[in-house]
Fold each of these.
Amino acid sequence: MTFRNGLASLLRPEDSVLVLIDHQPYQLANVNSHEPQMVINNTAGLAKAAKAFGVPTILTTVIAARGGLLFPQITEVFPGQEVIDRTFINTWEDRTVVDAVKATGRKQLVIAGLWTEVCVAMPTIQALGEGWDVTVVTDASGGVSVEAHQVAIQRMIAAGANMMTWLAVAAEWQRDWARLEQAAALTEVITQHAGGSGIAFLWEQQLLNTPVPAEAR
Amino acid sequence: MTFRNGLASLLRPEDSVLVLIDHQPYQLANVNSHEPQMVINNTAGLAKAAKAFGVPTILTTVIAARGGLLFPQITEVFPGQEVIDRTFINTWEDRTVVDAVKATGRKQLVIAGLWTEVCVAMPTIQALGEGWDVTVVTDASGGVSVEAHQVAIQRMIAAGANMMTWLAVAAEWQRDWARLEQAAALTEVITQHAGGSGIAFLWEQQLLNTPVPAEAR
Amino acid sequence: MTFRNGLASLLRPEDSVLVLIDHQPYQLANVNSHEPQMVINNTAGLAKAAKAFGVPTILTTVIAARGGLLFPQITEVFPGQEVIDRTFINTWEDRTVVDAVKATGRKQLVIAGLWTEVCVAMPTIQALGEGWDVTVVTDASGGVSVEAHQVAIQRMIAAGANMMTWLAVAAEWQRDWARLEQAAALTEVITQHAGGSGIAFLWEQQLLNTPVPAEAR
Amino acid sequence: MTFRNGLASLLRPEDSVLVLIDHQPYQLANVNSHEPQMVINNTAGLAKAAKAFGVPTILTTVIAARGGLLFPQITEVFPGQEVIDRTFINTWEDRTVVDAVKATGRKQLVIAGLWTEVCVAMPTIQALGEGWDVTVVTDASGGVSVEAHQVAIQRMIAAGANMMTWLAVAAEWQRDWARLEQAAALTEVITQHAGGSGIAFLWEQQLLNTPVPAEAR
Amino acid sequence: MTFRNGLASLLRPEDSVLVLIDHQPYQLANVNSHEPQMVINNTAGLAKAAKAFGVPTILTTVIAARGGLLFPQITEVFPGQEVIDRTFINTWEDRTVVDAVKATGRKQLVIAGLWTEVCVAMPTIQALGEGWDVTVVTDASGGVSVEAHQVAIQRMIAAGANMMTWLAVAAEWQRDWARLEQAAALTEVITQHAGGSGIAFLWEQQLLNTPVPAEAR
Amino acid sequence: MTFRNGLASLLRPEDSVLVLIDHQPYQLANVNSHEPQMVINNTAGLAKAAKAFGVPTILTTVIAARGGLLFPQITEVFPGQEVIDRTFINTWEDRTVVDAVKATGRKQLVIAGLWTEVCVAMPTIQALGEGWDVTVVTDASGGVSVEAHQVAIQRMIAAGANMMTWLAVAAEWQRDWARLEQAAALTEVITQHAGGSGIAFLWEQQLLNTPVPAEAR
Amino acid sequence: MTFRNGLASLLRPEDSVLVLIDHQPYQLANVNSHEPQMVINNTAGLAKAAKAFGVPTILTTVIAARGGLLFPQITEVFPGQEVIDRTFINTWEDRTVVDAVKATGRKQLVIAGLWTEVCVAMPTIQALGEGWDVTVVTDASGGVSVEAHQVAIQRMIAAGANMMTWLAVAAEWQRDWARLEQAAALTEVITQHAGGSGIAFLWEQQLLNTPVPAEAR
Amino acid sequence: MTFRNGLASLLRPEDSVLVLIDHQPYQLANVNSHEPQMVINNTAGLAKAAKAFGVPTILTTVIAARGGLLFPQITEVFPGQEVIDRTFINTWEDRTVVDAVKATGRKQLVIAGLWTEVCVAMPTIQALGEGWDVTVVTDASGGVSVEAHQVAIQRMIAAGANMMTWLAVAAEWQRDWARLEQAAALTEVITQHAGGSGIAFLWEQQLLNTPVPAEAR
């Protein structure tokens, strides 16, 4: 067991691959660790950030014909992309998904899904054992109870996983505001999905574009 | 002091007028009673519901040149509509706003704004004294602390105000799912802004449109 | 507005009628104020207590062909009983339900349902205006958020409703442990649904039925 | 029992008198409803706002030789002002304090103190019975437990008291940002004591005083 | 419905009578609204304060032979006093208890018990209807859930009851620290049961009895 | 200290053995970390899942003649099975229990019990030292306070234990929905004990079995 | 970094030594992580348990002449015992304390104190570096905020410390209820300080000593 | 991975260097893990403590011309000191900051900033990989949500970082109250920023300087 640190351990867009697992109606119906609207919002924000930074994203569901299709807020980000449907609850035992991930050639595996303690925990733990660097995006995930969510986070930490939240992932991919091309796309994502910062940004732009007034309030 | 009850006390679209107050960057920057993204989400949902039911909506800000423009998530619902800018913190002391409300001829006044304890409380309390039936939408509002928000709710209740949350207002305007025309519009709002219900609805539609399978999971 | 007090204001089985509203899958899927299992448990406990005390119970749903059937944990308590299906969101605007309630000849109306802020609030407020004595069972109900649930409780209090929780309703119907026939039935309900008390009761019985030992721990 | 509403019910600086009660070390040592630093901060902010709006402020302690002197953060706002020391726990039974309040000729009595459930509740309830309009500033007060604080608020509401938080009182005294003289003083108070808004204000001023740049972030 | 305020509405030792209801093992085993040790501590503190101020205290249980004897921490305060055992869950329907209360000739009825929503709520509501002035001591009570406890408080407020916490009752009985005889007894109670204040008091006494040192820390 | 990860570290029914410890009345009477009904529910759900997957389950109590018998909700799952009674608080120092576990020949030891910090922590820590792979099911356990429960979890993590919640254990045993025989049994458990998912499943089945209607809501 | 597990890692009375640090008025006055009465109660319970099991206890304060004497609830457990007064905030840099601990010849060091993040954290971290096996009793400690307390726990875990709560320590020292002599003393401690369990025990004894009745409730 | 313990691991003023990162308006506008006023207060307290102990402090911002200047409560502590402005979000990729830190020749790196999960996490993780001993001051930091803040703390712990809160850092720098010169300065900081302790200290001084009275309260 070693500490996971150093500059190389930070997420880089060119080395990252995102896997979104089972953001489906059956699962969401019993998420009790988060406000469901925030789970949808955070996952959509994460998906758009991945797209903005050119991070390949794998979409997968479990028996979607019964448990329901992936949230449209996610599929709309990737029009036309195949969603890999499985019977395995543990995504990492499904060859199609793992092959799709491997095909990207990337080793920084970023995972979010429903539920944290089942559909996220199992592939995370298995992949760690196979040498992957795995980051779990906890606030784009959710569990059947607060305890289920938190205990799963502790279990995955003990397995060597890296824990983050969606806006931190996006900021780590950006890393330097001097990278202007992605900054614009990221700002758009923030405005839609991290409203506390998005509205502050719009205010900043409004005031910067206001000629200096004679006096202040 | 009388109980507020009876069928007539329920909100009706044709008698309602919505006033959205000071959903601006300066105010949002110090909202600590709610997740800011949820305040934006709930207010946008409320605005769209009002539009769907033909409820006139008054938009107002305080010194927007400094404190920032209304959230675009709100103004986009009402393209081209004037936002009344004030210097009065208490909206109800501003003649332009009150005249606009009176011009609608409606008496069920629905208010949301930032902050609950200032920009919502003052007009609510004044209007109640002038005989208006006032409903405050608490989750499309927000205060500088949980205590500020909750104490303001208790104050407004003691002033005779009616407390609701945004989805309850929308459902009360709908009242009967047999009113099909608004139901479709409302469902769209729910899908976007009340994701826990929206995703459940999409699942329902998917499954209803699935031919009966031979056997079940 | 008057205080609701006095011996006559307490619930009596012979004057009570219970209405259970919209305990359905679509609604439960977005309950975020309570652990869903507890809502089911509490509602089943309430239903069984009503049955034990001979309190007539009206069951109703809204468009069950789409939003799903009443929880089986409830319908199993009343085998063969009709569930009144409505299109009105506001149960009290549905003639069939109101007639069924009136047919019982009882005036202490006890209501629980999903969601607190919609399906419970509207009939409660309307019935209060028509002179009914209305008690809402808050922990056999649930809302889309903690705030939605709590604000609805405050609204219904301001409308004159009486707020209780399920075990308190059951105990108020019992009133005197000397009423032995119902006590046995109530104890069975408690053992199944109020486990903290049920297990304590079983322990009490075990120890009472233990011959006095020579010495103590 | 009547609703407290209408424009006249809002606080006005010229009709207000502030009484700060027992913000002393012995009391603060067992405040468990709030972070002590926030109680000090909020009370100092309230005191400075009163001073800025010319609201007379009465300072009082109970046996300060033993329980300790008023917080310096309060006394420094009113250099040289007498602090009335009492043996009565109930401030309103102390003639000196009541005479001092009456001498101001004002009828909007604003009270904050430690503890909410003792030193604030008793004078509030007594003064209400004598016809005063009493506002309690809950977040410049504090109790020995969260329950003690909240139950006292409910008790005082049932006695007819008006509940507010410190920043809401200050904003209500301001009422209109066009009143420029007090606005500057209030802004200074906000910068020191309502940092979330104060920092936002400083940012606003910085950006307003920045010439329009060529392009935006 | 009238506001309960004015000096006469404050509790006085000579007009108060305390009724402690069902602080028994069976009830405590399913208290989930408070830490059980705090319920015992607060009730013992309340009992001792009553004794210190000469407030007569009625002790009662429901079927103690099965549900267990009153906590010894309470009975030890009143050695030899009869505990009235009932079968009625609603204490106020038991003639022995009501007669004992009436025999004291006092009209300020102070009640605490387990559970808040059953054993406290019923007698409180009935007694209010018969003209008693009833104060409920919420933190010397407890319910089967936080919601059960809080909803019961709201119900009793709507019935006209006065809500307080134990230390506030004790301080209101004291009213003036110049009443030295009770002050000593109250201080002893605080030292044992309100440790945050008790320890602060002991410190105060230690330092006051320390000769002035040459310099400070 | 090594990370616990890899496919082999996931729970398998054929390698698991479940030990349920001290789910007794004396212990439950002072559980304050969870709602008691949920502890009973979760433990019963876990027990039924174990049975469904053929996982041998050891039942044990400590001095049941005094502290009470195992909850009937557990013993009813295993009719006629012996419950091993101990005097050792630490189950792992009781030869009978350890021998029973060893007799199963399984090495994935799954433990739940009351209290987390005593009856679960001690055998977990001892067994880990003897080379067992130990998983603690935290939500089928409970402690005397939230802090006691959480600190014990942290202690057991530092000892090398794996933390999970009951539904995650069941899902990990299932692993693949293509294993149809257990899926049916698991679904029955979920319907009874994980109502948020159970009700969603029943809805899914209802809608799948509904012929495609002409139009949608 | 190694896992701390195995039977030998459990606490044994004959190998334990308890150090209680700075349970003084100055420190308690700013404890905001716990109810102060519970901190006093838990520390007294821990002290009495140590005494019951013959665990030597070192008492120490920092500048007691100014910051106040140790709580009498602790010193009363050890009449006449010296309290070592220090100027070092870090107890482990004080030779007198460390020598006293070493003189006991025991290696299982159990520490509790105020504040967790200062007076507990420093000696814990230093002693761990010197090879001691250190257990921190978190609920007999307390910090200036919930975050301060919890972050300190995480820091000490990262330093190798073992985290427990007071009742778990007592139960681990007992280990087997067959050790009757200490069991009686421990039961007395539980009755006084772990009331939820103490009252349950008294009930158990009452019922066991009740002759079997003819019938049950 | 090794435990971080031993006397040498405690913070020493002469080996510490403090880096304050991005305490700016844009960041504060979306801090939702803490009360913003407390973040400002704690950071100012930490800055003053560093100054009192001669700990060099590096101040840095990201694009201050847009996101706003450092809080004046911080810059006022270091009049005239340069604030290093960056475009890198990750401070540790900015040569100017790292060179400034290295120039101090100190190896105990203490970091606080906004947001915990972005501007604190990245430099902490990178610096740890380069061999620095890094302490994060969590309550002088803040994140966009409670989960973002807490998950970042868990991530940094897994990277080997040391977690503390501001007052603990100050006390660890002090270490011994016999160091009188810094004690006075630290006391001044506590009085301003840790009011619960500051007010207690002032009381202590008042009482110590009071001649012993004839009798006590």
Amino acid sequence: MDTPVVHRRHFLIGAAGVAVASTVPGMGGLAFAQEAIGTQAPTTPLPDYASWKKPEAMIVHTELTLETRRPFIGTSSVVPSNILFVRNNLEPPDSAIVADADAWEVAFEGVAQPRTMTVRELKQLGIATVPTVLQCSGNGRGLFDHEASGSPWLTGAAGCVVWSGVPLRAVVDALGGVAEGARFVTNTGGEVIPEGIDANEVLVERSVPIENVDTIILAWEMNGEPVPLAHGGPLRVIVPGYYGVNNVKYVKRIAFTEAESEADIQQTGYRVRPVGESGAPDQPSMWQMKVKSWVTHPVVETPSGPIQIHGVAFGGINPVQRVEVSTDDGQSWQEAQLLDPDLGRYAWRSFVLPVELPSGTYSITSRATDSEGNVQEQTTEPNHRGYDYSGWDRLAVEVTVL
Amino acid sequence: MDTPVVHRRHFLIGAAGVAVASTVPGMGGLAFAQEAIGTQAPTTPLPDYASWKKPEAMIVHTELTLETRRPFIGTSSVVPSNILFVRNNLEPPDSAIVADADAWEVAFEGVAQPRTMTVRELKQLGIATVPTVLQCSGNGRGLFDHEASGSPWLTGAAGCVVWSGVPLRAVVDALGGVAEGARFVTNTGGEVIPEGIDANEVLVERSVPIENVDTIILAWEMNGEPVPLAHGGPLRVIVPGYYGVNNVKYVKRIAFTEAESEADIQQTGYRVRPVGESGAPDQPSMWQMKVKSWVTHPVVETPSGPIQIHGVAFGGINPVQRVEVSTDDGQSWQEAQLLDPDLGRYAWRSFVLPVELPSGTYSITSRATDSEGNVQEQTTEPNHRGYDYSGWDRLAVEVTVL
């Protein structure tokens, strides 16, 4: 059979843990595949704060960016904490803050009765549990052709996890309601700001539209355990359906504000714009996620006979309605089965399609549609920072059926 | 206020990891509480095959029985693998079997075309994902008054986890269907049988009614990772809604049989009978679980003010319909809220009830009702082996509101 030729750039992880582009046809695909399945030992050791991760499942891009290798994602909907990706904008704070998690303090501002509350107090106000997809804005950056700064994530800067905490609405109600004129929820991370620089240059402070007040939870539990430091413990803001950066870690201040944060990360960072343009506040912010899916098995080669193609799909703020799978580079599509359990609108859903393929090489990919009829795009237009490549074209895997 | 006096026996874990009954009123409650919250360091180290568990969360009864301390269960529905209880009937096999999981072989008998299949082959036949409550038959044994042999589990020989694997139905269909006359699915564990003894004395082989062929899955994945050795990897039989013992680990043989297994574990073990009687095949087998719930927070003491009482509830083969909570030893009840996500009929559901209690001591307990109207019992009649204490009376916690 004809092997579909897929033009794309692939990455090898070099000795220093730095991504190196490979443009050799064929070789690129193989390198991509080997890197993805973890046949190479990690080239950089896990950082101390994440030393409890499963090393063979992780690509260590830098000390602050750890990716989950594609085929380590299973079909159980929930991604276990020990293989979940990590992306920190700054060094995490000292681990002492999770040793006495209930004592962590958060300042609430822009409410009728502003005050500081401890996690211990927040735990008295209410409980909600919500599974969400956590996805870095730069997930898929490695699939763009242009050189965008940041880690060259493939698919593994994403995972679906279960959060428990207090609904922000319950806290706001306890504090007398939101101050008049507020249009944003502005959340500040508890990272230590290095001395001698303008705090706004590095401060992790993100604003999201105030409508999210009814879905945000302040989470002290992830996947049934206290939120680990690597994932934002003692307390993390969870904005369901929004990119990871909005889910501020070690949150120390929650403010209802009239304007967006003055921090660079809000004003000019995480802004979608053409390649070569500078970031500016009038460009779209990386808030709500797009509909997206990808295949997690098979990814390299598989015996002939029956094959269960499976993967994950999500719709950002909308539930996934359907997933189609193509084994011929998008020329034809078959409807996949969505697997139970359905963890809710903000979670991802596993899908499976049983096929029988003769020996050969196939470009296998998936295309999700959400409940509003939004269809996963075929290709993602380049954007300066290489945010969220969601096109089913380059999310495809080249699989050899033996 | 009056402190309700709860007559019950409590356990201290002694230096040898052996449970010691405490009958000192007051002291018993305190010991129970301290033991439950994990203020005591583990007295027995974790066994090698489970060394990756979180030590402070586990009560090590023996090398083969590890219990989750009650307040380590959160509100996220899924119990993370590193705090899930362990109960093995025999030493687990060598860990080499999980290192090459796909090569593990299972013999299928009592089908039209009997044969042996590898996990690799099973993975080609289909995929289903099902969250289930895994609960040891002896969970709650420590709450009975009589001395029943076995570990004195409190509430922590139970957890809710997500399994992925192939539906047994898909395998049976691939093998030409079930042989005529079969009434049971009989599953044999892959433990090494010590030499010089009658295999039936120790063989882990359990039969369940054949109706379960449509719900059983053969799981290679638990909570999104390959099933660890401690939990039955490479392949475990999952019989949703059934006690743990039926969920045979390292399964090496799956047979459709006319009669139940000849192994003692089926014939005389796991049979419910009055105290003092021997086990016999005409007594009820520990198959389907009962409706049950318990409070996981607060368990010892809590500051006054608003309190979020939370816990877990399940209905065996039926979904939980409602949970009520009492703070006065069962004299009055209030309806609790069932938390999302709903992971399906075989999972447990977290519940929460916000209350305000003045300073004092309270007996707090919960009572679940399943979709068929079955109500959790008030007390559990003694049975010889101390199986599944489910009464809301002794599952209560004594809590001091400061």
